[in-house]
Design goal:
Order of helices and strands: EHHEEEEEH
Radius of gyration: 16 Å
Structural class: alpha+beta
Helix content: 10-25%
Length: 134
């Protein structure tokens, strides 16, 4: 059984690369964040809409291990699965080069929710994510 609950295919743009011709490390955080936002969107949830409801999910900690570089024009698949650890939702995210499915980045992103200005659990996320938690 595949542990991943969501995946998104993207393509590297020229301006995301550094002088060495590979994707600059900071851009991987953009890829990971975009994947999380698209996951929410696939569930019918708008990130902006959450803010309007007083629910602000924020990154508390991120750990990234770089394995294989991407280059301009490379297509890649960004996948995620989800765990809950206390008040945190931990997104485990892996990026694979589409051409050969080689692992590019392995990341864990710990997120917490600020609800109405206070750090706390989100009943909305608890309900929304329940079917996906490992």
């Amino acid at each position: 059984m595949d542990k991943y609950i969501f995946e998104l295919t993207l393509k590297v743009r020229d301006y995301e690369c550094d002088l060495q011709g590979i994707v600059n490390n900071a851009n991987y955080q953009h890829y990971l964040e975009h994947t999380r936002h698209e996951f929410l969107s696939s569930l019918g949830v708008s990130f902006a809409g959450l803010h309007e409801q007083g629910v602000d999910p924020v990154v508390a900690r991120i750990h990234m291990a770089f394995k294989t570089p991407l280059k301009s024009g490379d297509e890649f698949i960004s996948k995620l699965y989800l765990r809950k650890e206390g008040i945190k939702y931990v997104f485990h995210q892996d990026i694979f080069r589409k051409e050969d499915l080689k692992l590019v980045v392995r990341a864990s992103v710990e997120t917490v929710c600020v609800v109405d200005g206070r750090l706390r659990e989100s009943a909305l996320f608890d309900q929304l994510f329940a079917p996906f938690l490992i």
